[in-house]
Design brief:
alpha+beta; five-stranded antiparallel sheet
């Protein structure tokens, strides 16, 4: 049950479902959170006058020491359910969290699938609104932003692994979700402060809004673009920044990402050929995350590359990316990312199913094919970091070369 409460009446233990009023005019990134004394003081010092409190998620304490105002005193009671996440979904999240704050890949995959489905719909709705001339209401993505950063915190690579498995029809929308997750993951790897993690994820989620201004026949063209068509596409970062400004986005880092995520550190990118120190940290991060998801995904005109092969190629593009950030990105997704097809020293093929934090060179893999026998074998999981395990990865293989389709069926829980 949701209840409108004046900020003067807030108490620790109440669960804020929503801050009432324009979301860009308050200092809080999250719009839903459990109140402690510090958060109560911050809210009472802010410009927020009222909030919606979710009574079902408030922690009143065993002796009922938290005073929740009655409906007569605090305002009307709202009966509509929370849109995202539901109380049932939150209960499931609490069940799968383990003591160190992370969850297993298998536990997070199902949540990641839901986030991808909801994220695709949310981004598609924003694109649709822009095409109808109604502008961007970025406030609608804040619940999705919470979902993305929450998933990355629970399991760093689950969401980005699932989001990579998009088809050509959903690429444009799921690409935004994937880049938002990759940005949050890289920001965590760099140990950036919480506000920058949120800016990074928001910038990734909104970085391609300018594509909503492109003709659909150009955006979804299955073949190679003509020079004139490519000139149209190259304008989408400019459109994107304008749309976000008009929609009330004021964070300069987010706006810069929208306009400059196609710039290169050597100055050969677009739209303004910025280079080096002209590119802020989050913008340089966005260039890496955008390209990685693009080249590992199936698009209307191209089949995605294997994730490990994609990293190898990106590392070889001199002058394209910030080299230090590129190394941090590899550490965050793994030298052999989840879903990568690798050849083992035993002449068997396997798919990476989990990273080993202690060593990027020895992930957990699922063996399923014999190169010598040229046939599938009984699937077996190996932890290459285990003492006494003599298997090692000797190379990265192309699924296309072996005729493997739907390789995700091997590694998805």
């Amino acid at each position: 049950m949701l209840q409108t409460v004046d900020v003067a009446d807030l108490r620790p233990g109440m669960y804020v479902h929503k801050l009432l009023g324009p979301w860009m005019q308050h200092p809080f990134w999250r719009t839903s959170f459990l109140l402690d004394a510090e958060r109560v003081a911050e809210l009472q010092d802010s410009g927020v006058e009222q909030v919606l409190v979710d009574l079902s998620r408030s922690e009143l304490g065993g002796d009922g020491d938290v005073d929740v105002p009655t409906p007569d005193a605090a305002g009307p009671v709202h009966a509509e359910p929370a849109a995202m996440p539901s109380s049932d979904a939150d209960a499931e999240r609490r069940r799968v969290i383990v003591t160190d704050g992370t969850v297993s890949l298998a536990s997070e995959i199902s949540r990641a699938r839901r986030i991808c489905d909801e994220g695709r719909d949310a981004v598609e709705a924003m694109f649709r609104e822009v095409r109808l001339g109604r502008g961007v209401d970025a406030g609608h993505v804040l619940p999705l932003l919470d979902e993305i950063t929450g998933s990355v915190d629970r399991h760093p690579t689950a969401l980005v692994s699932v989001a990579r498995l998009k088809d050509a029809d959903s690429y444009t929308y799921l690409h935004s979700v994937a880049v938002g997750a990759l940005m949050a993951m890289l920001a965590r790897q760099l140990q950036l402060p919480e506000d920058q993690v949120r800016e990074a994820a928001l910038g990734g989620l909104l970085h391609d809004m300018g594509k909503a201004m492109l003709p659909l026949e150009v955006l979804n063209k299955p073949g190679k673009l003509t020079d004139d068509e490519f000139a149209i596409v190259r304008q989408h970062p400019v459109h994107g920044e304008r749309l976000l400004r008009d929609g009330g986005i004021t964070q300069e880092a987010v706006l810069h990402i929208a306009r400059h995520h196609h710039e290169k550190v050597n100055g050969a990118g677009y739209p303004q050929r910025l280079s080096g120190a002209e590119l802020p940290l989050l913008t340089r991060m966005s260039a890496i995350c955008d390209v990685y998801d693009a080249i590992t995904s199936n698009r209307p005109y191209k089949t995605g590359w294997d994730p490990a092969e994609s990293l190898r190629r990106m590392a070889s593009w001199q002058g394209h990316f910030d080299e230090t950030l590129m190394k941090s990105f590899v550490r965050s997704v793994g030298i052999y990312p989840i879903g990568a097809l690798v050849r083992l020293s035993s002449e068997r093929l396997a798919v990476v199913v989990e990273q080993n934090p202690a060593t990027l060179l020895a992930p957990r893999v699922r063996v399923f094919y014999s190169v010598r026998l040229r046939k599938h074998v009984l699937m077996t999981d190996l932890d290459l970091a285990t003492a006494g395990e003599h298997e090692r990865i000797v190379g990265v293989e192309s699924p296309e070369k072996w005729g493997f389709r739907d390789l995700e069926k091997v590694w998805l829980p």
